[in-house]
Queue: 3 jobs
Job 1
Amino acid sequence: MALLPHDTTPLSGRSVLVLSATCGFAVATLYYSQPLLPMMAASFGASASAQGSIAMLTQLGYAAGLLLFGPLGDRLERRGLITLLLLANISGLALCATANSLDWLLAASTLVGLTAVSAQIIIPAVSGLADPARRGQTVGRLMSGLFAGTLMARTISGFVGAHAGWRAMFLLAALLDMALIALVNYHLPKTPPDSELPYAKLLASLWQLPAQQPLLREACLVGFLLFAAFNVLWGSLAMMLARPPYGYGSEVAGLFGLIGIAGMCASPTIGRLVDRWGGRRIVALAAGLVMIAFALIAAASWNLGMLIAGVVVLDLGSRANLVANQTRLYALLTQARGRLNTLFMASYFLGGAVGSALGGAAASQYGWPGVAAAGVLLAAGAFGTVVLCRTAGRVADPVG
């Protein structure tokens, strides 16, 4: 693989901060729909299962976008690639806002997810421009912006949906994307591609890595299962809160996103625990936390406090899963970090898509007990995977 020279001038702190916020708003387009799902389905007289389909197709599109466009970050000039992705995302958001049928909305939601991968191009680009002595700190700031985007998206969309309707939220998101294009072009310098490898060969290398790296296979499977569990709740929460005994609208459903602040604040501590205890132990702990979370959520039909506690614990477990798995993968094969990230995140969001569909189906048929049972089973599968890999001793963990 031929490597081309880079401009190694470090970015200013202000530019890193702006690009961190850009990552947050870019990933937020995946989550704007979640508090609005009952309103969106009701607009077309659709059943409750349609709510899970909207969330599922958005995240399924994101997983496909990571696989299709993630490798292009090594092959094309990144600033131009990010601009094109944001323009395509604006088109998807506009199509959502103007959808006149459920099928149209489902197709538009898929396009939104497919093109919402800008943050996964920005992070490697900024990492390559960072001062080597402060690269970890820089990436940490970018990830904080990414986490903040997942939190604020649900709260903002819940508020806008309650006061202006769900279509207004997608129009607002399209306007925000236009602002992101300006920010990226001002704060992210042009850099030559890392590789001259043809696109087909870049894609082919994605299938070779899992065959060569057992730890990658383990991380992808565990990430799939635990993010599926996370989305079992978030793909059904707005629907369940709208039912008795709560009867809450999108604004209250969106406020539940603020509970995730606990997980965001805990991320640095989780990272230090990974360094001290090892990645696999923290992933096992994450699976245990997710099981505990859904045990609490099982009581949500009669106790709002148990639901809130479950959401807090679920977010901590999901955050620990992401931080621990990414840390050990980045230490695995330094020359292929971008592709390792592409494969892991694609598996992660594919799990999210499956979880969203499963959550909608479980909630519509069995209510809170069904949601809890689905989440526990997925987390138990993740825990069992970690135990089997550790017991077999064939999958070495570079951080323990």
Job 2
Amino acid sequence: MPMKLGQVVGHANSALMLAFVALLVLIPDAYRVVALAGLCLSTVIVVIARGDQYARLDRDDAWFCAALMLYGAVWLLDVWRSGHWPIIERAGNRTLPIWPLLAVPLLIGLRCYPPNPRMLWWGACLGASGAGLIALYERLVLGAERASNGINAIPFGNLSLLLGSLALMAVLWSLRYRSARHVSWMVVAILATALGLLGSVLSGTRGGWVAIPFMMLLVYRAARDVLPRRVLRLGAGGLAALMLVTVMLPHSGVGERVGQVTSDAHRYWQQGNAGNSLGMRLELWRAGAIMVAEKPLFGYGERHMESALRALAEEGRVYDRVIIHVQLHNEIIDTAARRGLLGVLSLILLYAVPLWLFWNKLRRSRHAPDLQILAAAGMMVPVAFFDFGLTQSMLRDLRGLSGYLGLCVVCWAALRAREEAPGVARSGSCGLHPGANIEDDGDRFFVQRSRSRS
């Protein structure tokens, strides 16, 4: 029996979800190619979708789209008034402000023809495993100081950590089923988790490690209704031991990086020496605070922020070497210096709206563990990127911004697809018990899914 058009589009959306998550840090230009393919497919969906597909969109989707559009609009307004597109390190001028606006039709397309939620877990496991293997190859075979896969080591390490944490959520997802096939899948997910964390460690990205406790709290919250308390404690202990062993590996470089932080802090605070990684960041933040105080409402703009930073260095008000950087290494400070308090408001909403939407789904799905796992995975993305943004402007990085937008959108689409599938609890009503064996893959998922609407 031939598949209907809706099933074909749903399978295409699933393939794009898998490709984006899996290839985000593995292939340098994959984020661009997959996003372009998704945008083209979304354009087709807008044309072919009927009223019953659009009926799936609700107020929560509207809030999500509004946050994306506000952030993009404020950034574009700043580009218009300053006449300058963002300059990205090693990449030159880029049209990043348009990307949040392009994420809106992607979200609509995924909601109208929902993907298979399991593709999120496959993508996270493939991406985390690939990142860890690449990191091992670069450190052990090539002898690189920091694993990076040819991109900036900081976003590589941060995204590896996030993908590894999502793979850990895939472990919980597999525990809901009782079959040999899902035991094998659980082993794959555990291995992917370890490799994702290893990729972060071998990248030497210290700032991203701040996010680990918060993401593990989300894992614990999602696991409460999936695992018995005794098993949960055992799993938490095993994960802590795994992380400790990884950190203590001779080639991890963690001890050296931690010692460097201590040395840098001493030289900056006691000797006034800003010529190190920590001191440079502190000087950049101080420069940003000065600029925000001078132009708090709208900031200096994309074109003039670097000029203002250079002027501060020439006047001796900050360390003169800060001019080698094109960002202030803190998402909020950098945004405030460029786009003022209005830009900061749009940034906070970009974090807070998805976080609030995922939290509502987590809170209202007490008897549906699979929904809780997907909601907690969605919460991981804004929580992680907020923490990453404390020491790096991740949303001014090509993979950072695409990763945040893409992962937020696909996690939301996967959650809503599972929420609307037959037999799954909605908003706190009674739902599946942890051992329920309701599959959500292949044609069966799409046939069942096409018969139900929110």
Job 3
Amino acid sequence: MTSPIPPGADPMVVAMSSTTATDPHDAYRWLRNECPVGLTVGGSGDATVIISRHEDVIWALRHPEVFSSSAEAMSIGQDHPLIPLQVDPPEHARYRRALDPEFSPRRVAMLDGEARALVNRIIDDFASRGACDFHEDFATPLPSTLFLAIMGLPQSDLPTLLRWRDDTIRPDVDPSDFEEATRIRRETSQSITAYFSEAIAARRADPDDRLLSRIVHGGLDDRPFTEAELLGMCHLLLLGGLDTVTATLDCMIVHLARHPDRRRTLVDDPSAAAAVVEELLRYETPVQLVPRVVAQDVTLSGVDIPAGTLAMVMVGAADTDETAFPDPDVVDFARSPNRHLAFGGGPHRCLGSHLARFELTVALEEFHRRIPDYHLADGAEIRYSPGIRQADHVPLRWPVG
């Protein structure tokens, strides 16, 4: 971090600060060493806990009966749970059985030609300029455009959906103005619900071969999905499809721009892309934390945590824990095994992890094939949003001609 963390600092403030998002490793180390289970009780009696050591993070992720992922853990103003994220076992397993085949490696591999063509069309728009804002010109349109194609939604809707994404995840308000942020999220959720209600009705009347239509005409073991279930799935797919891969690409390209020796690994050996993706998911974990709510009293690493406590499970801190990863501060593209937690763990492990890995691998392969030698613009200061580490801008420069 740019300044030392003062003694007695609030672990929640440290975990959720923009400074930590921009330069997280010192903060993660401080959390693991100074308050690995940092419990804070506010004046109103509301409790929060930050969990940062790998052993405790793994335990929390694997015990949803204690650390619940229900809607109480994270409200974004929606009237229905985000499915399957906000449904705990045993019901969670039924949704995963229905949805996992849509995101299987076999299904994802079928997108290869379409994805590579899209990547190259995007690069065509700026390759000859010798400059781009990678965040705006590549990291945002690539997963977003592919998401709309996969879902079978009009590409013309992208600006609206991106606005709803940002108003949900990072509303443009003072961080301390919780009421205004809640209002924006509530209104945005209502707009998303209205949009997908129309889209669902259209696919019921006129099916196609895309993901939204397959979900609309799918169901659980013994019945079709309800309208509320479909809306919960669509809401989650929107946020996952438009945000996390964008943030991950930002993190990876900034890292590679700052470390040209590591970038050469990709340029010299494109087959290394998958390993590069895995190690940068670990070292630059884009989703810093996953929220949970404590469903029953529990003692973790000697700290008593009462039921009802809001828990922030710091997967980013766990991914650089020396007890789980040898030399965790060394970026090693040959690291094996690499059991990082960038996609979470336990029953709620990310539904779209195979799709995300595929998009990231294709993006790195094609971008470095077309633009092998790039750097950040002189004087560029890049800031990341907390929670999900999305960059505010990524100005790249490269030689042309």
